[in-house]
Design a protein that fits this description.
This protein is an alpha+beta fold. The protein is 32% helix and 26% strand. Bound molecules: flavin-adenine dinucleotide. The site of flavin-adenine dinucleotide (FAD) has 40 residues, from helix 1, helix 2, helix 6 and helix 13.
């Protein structure tokens, strides 16, 4: 019988197994894929953005902020970075985003597997855990390869995002069978869907914008960055960062809209500042029609679409436009309203928002308050992060917390 059995050989499972083994426990890791860390390979477009120098808690999201604050009260930067250094990963840092210098996610995956092997973690792949029972202080783990027993369990099965990598949400049912509740998992860091007649027309346009999310016309949050306009709606990092909150609003059947400011880069924030800008531009750039005035600052296809939406022809002259049309144009350029009808599915999502509530674990050890000897890590928990290395960041941190706190003795 093992001291500790880790279920799931992803980011948090590998790190928790390594730390538990280093602390002296006999550790076994059960992974259903034929190799560990399959999801790590597709992170950061195959380059693995594994950390961010800005570890402010505002980059992490949960329904139980107070517990999360307790979990993250210690600064784990030094520990995480010296761990990666010790397994051979030298960071290449770009605007605070950490990647391996090799620029290949496979470097992180192999370094973690190697470190687990060196520390005598017994890794059993193609072993899928079907159910777990606790009888007489011992966990009985039922798998496709037979029954295993263990004194303690680390449940590190991930979420429902990108199920082709192995995280199909099976850990939610296992946690529920051991007494936990579940905050409905929803896709996050995912594209947003809309229904509008112009979607085909704007497909393929990229623009640097400010995008703001509204629930029932109430402002929720905004992000600045590149947006991609697509035939199903919108994508791009700033969209993805708002998507978890949008998914929550949609799940509550609330009216969900985004407003896009296409002129954010020029510090034009509303129709009045747009009017001032255009009056000045019309004087500087003489003898030009309205399209000429906009073409120099916006994508050509976007200019056509916004003019059409504002019922203005490309050949119209700024001086001849009614104030009503000038304001409408200003509104459409600084506050373009798009009604959101849904998100893309878990297949396209990078993470899941929701999961096992943080109120059901001890914030110092991540041990379950429902079943003694059960520990939970990573995305299985109700924590999701912004783009930028925060999700792997939480996977490493939670793995370190559990692995360093778990001990091999019997439990009640
Ligand atoms: C396309 C994409 C890009 C991403 N890019 C980044 C990035 O650049 N930076 C970043 O910080 N985050 C990124 N993420 C998110 C990050 O990969 C995850 O948050 C992180 O991997 C979660 O770690 P985890 O240990 O909780 O789960 P996972 O890494 O998903 O591991 C769970 C493991 O458990 C196994 N498993 C599940 N159920 C069972 C079972 N019943 N029995 C046995 N094994 C089981 C799975 O096969 C899997 O190997 C990205 C995600 C995706 C999908």
């Amino acid at each position: 019988m093992k001291d500790v059995t880790v279920i799931g050989g992803g980011a948090s499972g590998l790190v928790s197994a390594i730390y538990a083994a280093k602390a002296g426990a006999k550790v076994c890791l059960l992974e259903k894929n034929n190799t560990c860390g399959k999801k790590i390979l597709i992170t950061g477009n195959g380059r693995c953005n594994y950390w961010n120098s800005d570890q402010s808690i505002t980059h992490y999201h949960t329904r139980n902020k107070e517990v999360l604050e307790k979990i993250l009260q210690k600064d784990y930067s030094k520990e995480v970075l010296s761990f990666f250094n010790s397994i051979g990963i030298i960071p290449r840092i770009k605007e605070g985003y950490f990647y391996p210098t090799s620029n290949q996610a496979v470097s992180i995956q192999t370094a973690l597997i190697k470190e687990a092997q060196i520390n005598h973690v017994e890794i059993l792949t193609t072993t899928e855990v079907i159910s777990i029972k606790k009888e007489n202080h011992i966990f009985k783990i039922n798998t496709n390869n037979g029954i295993f027993t263990s004194k303690k369990i680390i449940l590190a099965t991930g979420s429902k995002a990108a199920p082709k990598t192995g995280s199909t949400g099976s850990g939610y049912d296992i946690a529920k069978s051991l007494g936990h509740s579940l905050i409905t998992p929803l896709p996050a860091l995912v594209q947003l869907k809309a229904e509008a007649p112009y979607l085909k027309e704007w497909h393929g346009i990229r623009a640097d914008v400010k995008i703001s999310l509204f629930e029932n016309n109430k402002y929720i949050d905004s992000k600045v960055g590149e947006i991609q306009l697509t035939d199903y709606g919108i994508s791009g990092i700033c969209t993805l960062c708002l998507s978890g909150r949008a998914a929550l609003s949609l799940s509550k059947k609330q009216k969900t809209d985004v407003k896009i400011n296409f002129l954010h880069q020029l510090n034009i924030h509303d129709k009045n500042s747009f009017l001032n800008f255009m009056e000045a531009r019309n004087k500087t750039v003489k003898n030009r029609n309205i399209a000429d005035l906009l073409d120099g600052i916006l994508n050509y296809k976007l200019v056509n679409l916004i003019l059409k939406q504002s019922k203005i022809s490309r050949e119209d002259n700024w001086n001849n436009l009614s104030n009503e049309k000038k304001y409408l144009l200003g509104d459409n350029l600084t506050s373009f309203n798009l009604s959101i009808t849904g998100t893309n599915s878990f297949d396209q999502a990078q993470v899941t928002t929701g999961g096992i509530p943080l109120t059901e674990i001890n914030p110092n050890t991540l041990e379950s308050s429902k079943t003694k000897g059960l520990y939970l890590t990573g995305e299985l928990l109700d924590v999701d992060g912004d783009c930028g290395g925060y999700n792997l960041g939480f996977a490493w941190i939670s793995g370190i917390i559990v692995g360093s706190n778990i001990k091999g003795e019997d439990n009640d």
